[in-house]
Amino acid sequence: MTETVVSTSTAGPGAAGAPAPAPGAAIPQAPRAKAAPARLRALDGLRLVAALMVAAYHYGGRGGSVTDAWGSSPKLQFPTLHTFFAYGCLGVQVFFVISGFVICMSGWGRSLTSFVASRASRLLPAYWAAVILVTAVFALPVVVYEAVSPSDALVNLTMLQQPLGADRVLGVCWTLWVEVRFYALFALCVVLPGANRRRVLMFCAGWLLAAAIAQAAHEPLLELVLMPEYAPFFVGGVGLYLVHRDRRDAHAWGLVAAGFLIGQHFAVRDLWNATDPNAFAHRTTFGIVLVVAFGFVAVAAVALGWLNRANWRWLTVAGALTYPFYLVHEHLGWVAIRFLHRGLHVPSAATFVLTAAGMLGLAWLLHRYVEKPLTPWLRTVLSRSH
Question: Do 288 and 53 touch, CB atoms closer than 8 A?
Answer without folding.
Answer: no
